[in-house]
Amino acid sequence: xxxxxxxxARSPFTTAPSVRGSSGFKVLGWAVDHxxxxxxxxxxxxxxQIALPTFYGSDRPNVVQYLQRPAYFASGFLAYVPPHxxxxxxxxxxxxxxxxxRSCYHQSAGIxxxxx
Length: 116
Prior knowledge:
This protein is mainly beta.
């Protein structure tokens, strides 16, 4: 799993990205279920341990090319954090990737984000 973009900041994130909470922001990336060599059943964006749904299943030919797995084509996600959903300050964002058979999930390491 990888977060490619938070607001207008793109990976790699060498410092905590800064986003405007008053206008909402997008989080984009990709995630797969490596254990089952498949796309995931679902992906949630987790902000400070609170899960938000994503739109999962967008085309990611670059992931197929990089990982050499055609099954990973529909592995992209987009999450939209609505205006004022997150208070100003420092927060941690991670991904919760649900296995293809829905038996478990993996949560990625967190990325610090500053909401202003």
